[in-house]
Amino acid sequence: MKIQCPHCRLSGQISDVNVPAEGMNMDCPRCKTSFFVKKEATASWKDTATECPACRFSTFSEERFDICPTCGLVIKDYNEKKGKSGSAPAQPAPGRPPRQQEALDPAEIRQRAEEDLRRLEEKNAGRSYGSPGAMPDLPPEPAAVVPLPVQLVGWTFVLAALAVIVYSGLGISSYYDKLREVAGDQFLAEEFAALHSVWGGVVFPVVQILFGAVTIGVAACFLRLLPWARRGLEICAWWGLAYVAGDQLVSLVNWVRRSSSDATILYYLIGVVSTLVMLALLAAPFLAAIWFLRGDLVSDLFEEIA
């Protein structure tokens, strides 16, 4: 009987024997969509048989089949090839007992029906390439091409994150080196503690190292065009922008704290302008990256992949 997948329109034939009278659900071998198959009356009696002339499978009943559920032989093709359309099915060979139909559970029946459909699909595909019964060696689907701008942005994030990790690691090492140098002098130790804290010398650099490691991982997934990586890299850019803004704000507060009691307005103005200039220079790459990640080139590419 002929069936067709309602989703991808794959059509083919399966043996009537494998379809119970009440029908059954089966999965399309191409798109894996589940659909219901109902048994229908055979169109032509002469293209059916109760015994397979090839493998000697027999139903041992009045039930006829157009495709052998064991070897997949199409009775119509067999009759046309042998020039015996309308003749009675071949008799079993002497001394060879016919195969009886086994009692199959619904799961095995569905599996055999799917194998019938898959085998017919492979056979038809092989015929179109001149080698009946075998699937052609189709070329593999080409991998998604990563545009050059996407590669540049991804590798820029990787290199920038590596630079942050190295810089932060050197900062922690320098902090402990200086701490060991002033350990024997109480006056120098107090001066060092006043200028350098554990937060600035250890905690913040450790946070920077962790953030850099996460950014490298997200950027690597971005270069592999994983669907979620575009949004993840944009979040990393926003976090980097927030960190830069917070760092410059802390620098401005320290500038004000270091001022003397008779500091002029020019002193504070220089601190504010310096902070704004540094903030603009450091924030520009993050803003450019966010703008690029939200652009049509990247958005369309990742939406197509998703």
UniProtKB/TrEMBL annotation:
The keyword Nucleotide-binding does not apply. Residues 82-106 are annotated as: Disordered. Keywords: Membrane, Transmembrane, Transmembrane helix. It holds the Pfam family Zn_ribbon_4. The keyword Membrane applies. It comes from the Bacteria. Residues 1-36 form the Zinc finger/thioredoxin putative domain. InterPro entries: Znf/thioredoxin_put (IPR011723). The chain crosses the membrane at residues 152-176, 196-223, 265-293. NCBIfam families: MJ0042_CXXC. This is Zinc-ribbon domain-containing protein. It comes from Geomobilimonas luticola. The lineage of its organism: Bacteria, Pseudomonadati, Thermodesulfobacteriota, Desulfuromonadia, Geobacterales.
